[in-house]
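for the record, two folds in this file. i put them one after another cuz i was lazy. first one right below, seq on top, structure tokens after. the second one comes after a little note so u can tell where it starts
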Amino acid sequence: MTLLVLNLSISNLLLLPKDQSIQQMLSLLLEFIFTFIVLSIYWIIHHRIFHFIMQTDVYLVWLNLIFLMTIALVPFGAGLLNNINHFGQIAITFYIIDLLSSLVFLYLIWWHATRHCQLVQADTTPEEIIRLRQSLLGIIVIFLIALAVSFINLVWSQLLLLFILIYTIISQFIPMRGRSRMLFSITCVMLNIITAVLVIILRIPLYLDSWATSLAVILGGVGIGLVVGIVYNLFMAATYWGPSYWVWMFSSALVALLTWFFFKRQWITLRKPWKLIAVGIMTGVLNTILAVVIIVIANLPPYQGTYPIYTFFYHMTGNTILASTVENLCVEIIDKTIAIVLAAAVASFVLKIRSYDEFTQYYPKISFNFGKRK
């Protein structure tokens, strides 16, 4: 952390005009503060891990040394990031991969120490082990998302890094349950955004930006699903769609409510494929009705991605409302069916991981009856 100050050299600033030198100086200071806080968080996590560890072995020592090597590279990566206008994609990729590698080795340290519980305190509970693993994996997932987004938009990737910083700071002051909900909600919002970006880039005549909303409902409840859908639409309205498109949050709210309704009736499961497809079709039909109402009331133009479909039906019918209705019906049924099947598949995978009793297999000495000890 102290090596970061080596990047605060003023020799190059003296060669620039005063205005540019001040701007560059502020940029260097912000980079220093940001990276120092990030490393402080890593230090806290490292300290928390070794609070439980009572013994070491050669594997743990090597994992810790490699972790420290990735930390030693951070000042170099921060220097590249400060010159992102020159290095571009290389700078953000190196910086994210370096910070991501540090987290991965922190996870490996904790995994190795708790694999057979031979290196941690005897009173370490399975709940504490799982909680720290999930916390590390959650941040790793966001770093992976930031890395993927960097190949699409560098600014968005930097905003994700800023979010990670804010989240980790806030997470120190809120309970674990609330922290997990917040991280899960933001992860689902990011999944919707990434899917929307991919659809736009690949020019797919669908939306596919509601599947993570349904996923949030299945795994987190209708409240989290509503928050995910509304926040996603407000973000897109503020960035890509335009301010007048905030009304589409009602469509996301409808998707969340329908997902919750059918999930409670056990229709959203891969074991009942016909009911699952029926959910997608009914959601598409109901969402079409709402979409047409929104388009008429808000006087919105057809979505660019499906504009050729709208044009085709407009030439056939000569009526804008009818063409919009048929276009939305064709697109929404396919879109919502794919979205709900994808959400069900991902949710099924996550629930299998949750239900997998790894401690029963690998930790026979630890009792799951927290009231008693074997």
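(here's the note) second protein begins now
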Amino acid sequence: MEIEEIYSYPDRDVLNEIISGPKIEVASPFFSSASLSLISARRTKNMAFITRLPTQYIMPSAFIENDPAPLAELFNQMNDRLNVYALPSLHAKLYIKDKVAWVGSANLTRNGFSGKPEIVIRFKDSENYWSGVFSDYRSIARPVRKTDLAKLLKWIDLGLTKVWNQNTTADEPLGETVYTPLTFEDFVEWLSEPSQPHPAIREHILDRVNGKNFMSGHVPPAFHGVMAFLRLNSEHRNRLESVDETSIPSGILSEFATFVEEHGDEYRGPKGGYWRSYLSTNLGGVQSSGGAGDTVVKKCLVLIPAYVNARRQPQFR
């Protein structure tokens, strides 16, 4: 594999070279509107782009890592000539044009190609090694449609989803500490940590995640919905830290019911059921009496403040 050049301070000229071809393939965890705006929809005949976006669109994720607006705009310009793939675990930065590949540390952002200390190495890819790596990443990623991005934009507008680094965007340095968004998958890991509080409640929810009483589909909408509710009503977090599911203040439950009445149909279960159909009218749902769905929600109202505190994540604020 032949190295053609090493850039220790990649700048705008390097980025322009990468995106100048009629067919480009990009794998970058982060992107920015400034960099996407440089891609010519007229000149670029086909672009495949792997990045960090949600892999499910049946309900709002608590947080997402990229602002979908500039990507949605590029979709509007390129239509089916742009293929986007979601891979939340992506960390590699890989750019391919023709038989040339660029590999390094620079994201597809203005900051990544601004002449700052980053490493980008240009290779001849005559043996298609890097193309094979890109294809491997794409095979484990989820295709993202234009309609998926429209959902993200709607959920952001409603406040149900938050771009976790919206106050320190991908164009700006985040400093030495890089925070991982609070995700359902991480929440499930936290449930198993023996040092965390509320062991009986955590065990109950973890059992449901694992399918006990056929309740696995109730937990994801409860997690994401409660996360959004507590982010929009952050003053309740401290009050919920000292209660259990049987002593949640009635005022909080009343506000939560209003939240579910307004936004509950944005959340769907894995099999397509609406979240409101899982809940009683006491919590803004449609059932005449309470049930297992109410129990899961109340336990999440108690657990999520503890989870957020354990992870010490500033993006929740």
